[in-house]
Design goal:
Arc Repressor Mutant, subunit A, 3-stranded antiparallel β-sheet
């Protein structure tokens, strides 16, 4: 995932900034005050040392001034690095897709070294089986459903996605997952569930069963204009979600098998979104 790469780059930049600030703050001065080891030197050497000490004091003052001028840079780097890391942590609590990216970028590599290959295969099998039965489920629901830890769930999902066995996408604050072997039509319905007026049309037709309803009957039940209903019926026909139940000048419409599946998926997704 691109989010994982971005998190790793940002984290590396933050750590580099913190280390740079520490290096600037604690790097030794090039000039140090001289000391005398032999106290038995003659007065001439003592006088020379005194002169050197005065000169070194001047150099020390200039070095302290230089270090003082560099302290704002050190403080800025430190504050910037800590601020970036703090933002990632805060974002992980607020936005699920940020939490997933942080876990996959930073925690998953640690988990990879602790799990045995046999355990890995069993866990990934459980995840794939769960996704086949719950396409479009978001990260936290998948984690809780399987009773896994954040790091373990993120590690295996990231690995499965890199192998092309799982796909994911952002849905507002969440990140949702499905197995990649689904058809394009199925993935499209999961990622873009039927909502609004078209969902209402499908629900009304589903209640009518195989007998179906005419356009006028649907219009009366929904209290919408004939033009708006015609538009939505045309879109549903093109996507093969409705079909004719009878022939004639005013045909009746019923939900097709594709429409029934789409209606089921849309209801599940809408119900899940209401509970989040």
């Amino acid at each position: 995932m691109k989010d994982v790469i971005v998190v790793r780059i940002i984290t590396l930049f933050a750590i580099s900034a913190i280390l740079s600030s520490m290096w600037i703050a604690y790097s030794p001065s090039e000039n140090s005050v001289l000391s005398i080891d032999d106290e038995s030197d003659d007065l001439a050497l003592e006088a020379e040392y005194a002169a050197d000490s005065d000169e070194d004091d001047g150099r020390g003052s200039s070095n302290r001034e230089a270090e003082h001028s560099e302290s704002p840079l050190s403080s800025g780097l430190l504050a910037g690095g800590i601020g970036i890391i703090g933002s990632l942590i805060l974002g992980s609590f607020v936005l699920e897709f940020v939490k997933v990216a942080v876990l996959a970028a930073l925690i998953s590599p640690l988990v990879a070294g602790m799990k045995s290959s046999r355990d890995d295969m069993l866990t990934r099998g459980r995840i794939l089986g769960y996704l086949e039965g719950n396409a479009g489920i978001h990260f936290s629901a998948l984690r809780d459903g399987l009773g896994l830890a954040n790091g373990v769930t993120s590690y295996h999902l990231h690995l499965l996605e890199s192998r092309g066995e799982v796909i994911s996408w952002r849905d507002g604050k969440l990140r949702r997952y499905a197995v990649s072997k689904l058809s394009k039509e199925e993935i499209g319905r999961i990622r873009n569930p039927i909502v609004g007026t078209r969902l209402a049309v499908l629900e009304i037709l589903a209640k009518s069963g195989q007998f179906g309803l005419t356009g006028k009957e649907i219009q009366n039940k929904m209290s919408i204009s004939r033009q708006l209903l015609s538009h939505h019926l045309r879109e549903l026909r093109q996507s093969e979600m409705v079909e004719t139940a009878s022939n004639g000048r005013r045909p009746k419409w019923k939900v097709s098998e594709i429409g029934t599946n789409a209606l089921s998926v849309s209801k599940e997704v809408s119900r899940a979104r209401l509970t989040q």
